[in-house]
């Protein structure tokens, strides 16, 4: 019975998210163009799009480690483990500052949604064009001094199975080039809410919990492109043990 009801809820929520995404995409474009206020558009999106969608789906989000966020006024880079589309919604809805995501360039071609992503300052990434990606990273670096926060998935794509995937060099090149701090962010529970390959959220249980664990930042200015692998290793070594611990806490290990 629970499965049937939550399956129907998932279908309704898929329809709701599709329609609301279109509506808030148009609204974000208008606010960004007319009022030049992408952060205002973000505040509207986070409360009336993201948090509403999570609440209606029976998903609770707990944010831990806010005291670990840099307080020097400069932007920084969230590096997060990516297991589900829902982890993006959780980040948008509950992180204190709007993160600008690096996303595959195909998403920017979706009508209205792609234009909204452009207007909010997200980064289109052409994975098969490394030179273009590095150019975008270089241009985005100038925004760090203005306090813009970015978010990238060092694994490159969604992972499954409860283990961190191999960390790619691109996000770390971005961090070193822009002279910003790296903030490791662990997201646990999103994979169970919406597994890879599923379009429905939270089927099979009335409620589920997602934990966003912000870890102490790492100063990328201490590294160069020559010893970039050390930054990759340090970041992964900092994330991996607590990732396992948080999964056990939620009963997934």
Task: Summarize, please.
The chain is an alpha/beta fold and 253 residues long. The chain has helices at residues 2-34, 38-56, 85-94, 113-120, 130-144, 170-178, 190-193, 228-249, and strands spanning 59-64, 76-80, 99-104, 123-125, 149-152, 181-188, 208-214, 218-219.
Write the layout of secondary structure elements.
Elements: H1 2-34, H2 38-56, E1 59-64, E2 76-80, H3 85-94, E3 99-104, H4 113-120, E4 123-125, H5 130-144, E5 149-152, H6 170-178, E6 181-188, H7 190-193, E7 208-214, E8 218-219, H8 228-249
Parallel strand pairs: 1-7, 2-5, 2-6, 3-4, 3-5
Antiparallel strand pairs: 6-7, 6-8
Essential attributes:
253 residues, single chain, alpha/beta, Glycerol-3-phosphate (1)-acyltransferase
Structure description:
With 253 residues, this protein is of the alpha/beta class. The protein has a single domain, classed as Glycerol-3-phosphate (1)-acyltransferase, CATH 3.40.1130. It is built from 8 helices and 8 strands; from the N terminus they run ααββαβαβαβαβαββα. Strands 1, 2, 3, 4, 5, 6, 7 and 8 form an 8-stranded mixed beta sheet that branches. The chain is globular, with a radius of gyration of 18 Å. The mean pLDDT is 91.
